[in-house]
């Protein structure tokens, strides 16, 4: 560590914080879904437990970007870690106290914590990449893809961890173990994260919360429907379907979804290679060419077909094969779309006060998750998984249409 550049040390600290937080976030999500399903709650009631988690994510990203530019990204990241510890502690109450309003309140704090942490980590990357270095754009893309991909791989491990801890330690024991580990991470972050990280030279006014960039606004709208299309069937409907229709236990549901998220994260980390543009004559990658609108349209168009194909396959005698195979394909294509979008927003964001644009963008991301989560529980309870999949495909078509307004090249 002593031989590394200060920027690289800060990048590793930020990534380590993000990893630790993501493990607890993924585990908590799976713990809540499986535990309350075990208690007899329906799909819509379980979805409502995450309502404030997603709603406050919308608010947090909008205000968090402004706070990050004024106070520094180290402070917003540490506040996020601290709030997650409080959210976990709120669930260490007797079972009789774990009512829907109480759990919703704990999830609200967790949602604030998660989006403060994510916004801080994604914004900080742009401040750590040298602006005048050769291939700076490619370096930025690789850093973003690595952070995003590794985060999602660990979120998958968190899903497995949640199912495993629920079986081994019970709900309260699992929550206590995660709170203890995260407290150690939080104390390390308070000691070692650089104080002035991400502070804007000119303190932004509250009126500057909303982005004035057309590219950022269009990408944010596309992101909203992209993530709504994932969560409308993945967040609540899929785990409950696997448990109720396939008869899987906690280990199987948690393990399968963990494997899916891990593979999804690995593909995200490889996205710079998958989306690299090639020379029409030689067929070789153009080292300096970065993806833009054309790549966003191509990969979203492929993704939009998958939920519709899965929905058609669920009516056949090979529904297991269609669902599992389709889910794997969806994960790979969604990973590329997500990583590409994550790079584009950091690329489009202004240099001074980067967290303002990134925070606005992830506000749209959180709004998409909120919409998808609520619809996931409602559609599944009323019409089943097929309805969730058809709505997912329709949302991806909307994403495709919106993405046509992006600049021709990322530099625009």
TrEMBL record:
<keyword id="KW-1133">Transmembrane helix</keyword>
<feature type="transmembrane region" description="Helical">
    <location>
        <begin position="389"/>
        <end position="406"/>
    </location>
</feature>
<dbReference type="Pfam" id="PF07690">
    <property type="entry name" value="MFS_1"/>
</dbReference>
<feature type="transmembrane region" description="Helical">
    <location>
        <begin position="295"/>
        <end position="315"/>
    </location>
</feature>
<dbReference type="InterPro" id="IPR036259">
    <property type="entry name" value="MFS_trans_sf"/>
</dbReference>
<feature type="transmembrane region" description="Helical">
    <location>
        <begin position="321"/>
        <end position="348"/>
    </location>
</feature>
<protein>
    <submittedName>
        <fullName>MFS transporter</fullName>
    </submittedName>
</protein>
<feature type="transmembrane region" description="Helical">
    <location>
        <begin position="79"/>
        <end position="100"/>
    </location>
</feature>
<feature type="transmembrane region" description="Helical">
    <location>
        <begin position="160"/>
        <end position="193"/>
    </location>
</feature>
<dbReference type="InterPro" id="IPR047769">
    <property type="entry name" value="MFS_ArsJ"/>
</dbReference>
<dbReference type="InterPro" id="IPR011701">
    <property type="entry name" value="MFS"/>
</dbReference>
<feature type="transmembrane region" description="Helical">
    <location>
        <begin position="253"/>
        <end position="274"/>
    </location>
</feature>
<feature type="transmembrane region" description="Helical">
    <location>
        <begin position="12"/>
        <end position="37"/>
    </location>
</feature>
<keyword id="KW-0812">Transmembrane</keyword>
<feature type="transmembrane region" description="Helical">
    <location>
        <begin position="214"/>
        <end position="241"/>
    </location>
</feature>
<feature type="transmembrane region" description="Helical">
    <location>
        <begin position="360"/>
        <end position="383"/>
    </location>
</feature>
<feature type="transmembrane region" description="Helical">
    <location>
        <begin position="43"/>
        <end position="67"/>
    </location>
</feature>
<keyword id="KW-0472">Membrane</keyword>
């Amino acid at each position: 560590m002593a031989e590394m550049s200060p920027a690289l040390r800060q990048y590793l600290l930020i990534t380590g914080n993000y990893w630790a937080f993501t493990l607890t976030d993924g585990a908590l999500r799976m713990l809540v879904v499986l535990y309350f399903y075990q208690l007899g709650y329906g799909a819509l009631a379980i979805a409502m437990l995450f309502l404030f988690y997603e709603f406050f994510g919308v608010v947090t990203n909008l205000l968090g970007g402004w706070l990050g530019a004024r106070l520094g990204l180290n402070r917003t990241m540490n506040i996020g870690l601290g709030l997650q510890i409080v959210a976990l502690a709120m669930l260490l109450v007797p079972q009789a106290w774990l009512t829907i309003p109480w759990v919703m309140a704990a999830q609200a704090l967790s949602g604030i914590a998660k989006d403060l942490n994510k916004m801080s980590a994604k914004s900080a990357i742009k401040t750590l990449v040298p602006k005048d270095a050769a291939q700076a754009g490619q370096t930025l893309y690789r850093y973003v893809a690595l952070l995003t991909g590794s985060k999602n791989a660990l979120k998958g491990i968190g899903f497995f961890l949640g199912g495993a801890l629920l079986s081994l330690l019970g709900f309260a024991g699992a929550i206590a173990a995660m709170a203890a580990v995260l407290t150690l991470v939080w104390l390390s972050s308070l000691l070692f994260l650089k104080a002035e990280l991400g502070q804007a030279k000119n303190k932004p006014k509250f009126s500057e919360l909303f982005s004035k960039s057309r590219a950022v606004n269009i990408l944010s709208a596309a992101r909203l429907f992209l993530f709504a299309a994932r969560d409308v069937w993945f967040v609540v409907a899929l785990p409950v379907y696997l448990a109720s229709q396939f008869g899987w236990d906690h280990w199987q549901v948690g393990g399968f979804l963990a494997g899916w998220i891990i593979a999804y994260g690995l593909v995200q980390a490889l996205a710079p290679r998958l989306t690299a543009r090639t020379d029409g004559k030689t067929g070789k990658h153009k080292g300096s060419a970065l993806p833009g609108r054309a790549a966003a349209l191509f990969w979203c168009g492929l993704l939009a077909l998958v939920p519709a194909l899965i929905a058609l396959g669920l009516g056949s005698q090979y529904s297991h094969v269609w669902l599992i195979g389709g889910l794997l394909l969806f994960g790979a294509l969604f990973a590329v779309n997500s990583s590409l979008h994550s790079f584009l927003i950091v690329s489009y964001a202004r240099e001074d006060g980067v967290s303002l644009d990134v925070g606005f963008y992830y506000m749209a991301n959180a709004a998409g998750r909120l919409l998808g989560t609520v619809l996931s529980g409602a559609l599944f309870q009323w019409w089943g998984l097929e309805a969730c999949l058809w709505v997912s495909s329709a949302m991806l078509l909307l994403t495709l249409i919106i993405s046509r307004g992006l600049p021709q090249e990322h530099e625009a």
